[in-house]
Sequence to fold (233 residues):
Amino acid sequence: MSIGKRAAAEFFGTFWLVFGGCGSAVLAAGVPSVGIGYLGVSLAFGLTVMTMAYAIGHISGCHLNPAVSVGLAVAGRFPGKDLPAYVIAQVLGGIAGAGVLCAIASGKGGFDLVGGGFAANGYGEHSPQQAYSMVAGLVAEVVLTFFFLFIILGATDERAPAGFAPIAIGLGLTLIHLVGIPVTNLSVNPARSTGPAVFVGGWAIQQLWAFWVAPIAGAAIAGVVYPALSKKA
Fold:
């Protein structure tokens, strides 16, 4: 498969992740009496990855995430020369998904893009509970991304049961969102963070560095640890 087709698949897949995951938070989480809350948003993110894994996994591998691409490259599962194309496609897909979501959300009277946060990731006063420090946010993002990549590497190992990887990965993403949403709104994905931040601007752009550095660090560590742990004697 050409790099152009694989990058296009990553664009559409990351669009779906941001539109579906962040869309559930922006449009449905706070609806009176029927709001889906943290559990619903966590499931939405997990479902976006699981559905796209079945849809485009055979085309691009369904990374949808610069940190995943970096972690797989470190683990020797993905060619480093393809990283730029994947990362660019993922970031553009995330921005496009956030853009369509913004167009829909803005159609509701009283919608406050900046004041409502637009599902952007943040720490300190921009943490969902305005309680978690920068250090707490960085630790959460590194650890949760590490385990997300650990799950991906294990579920896609040639020795793992065939056909179940998307389910394990989707449920894994659901679980880490249940843990991380109260801390930073949970990123574990620089493209997911960049999309909403572009539209919120200000503080979201200023804090965006953390949601690139921490997920990539966690993924890279997993890219070293899992192969060492799983290496055949």
Observations:
- The two ends are 33 Å apart (CA to CA).
- The chain is about 70% helix and 0% strand.
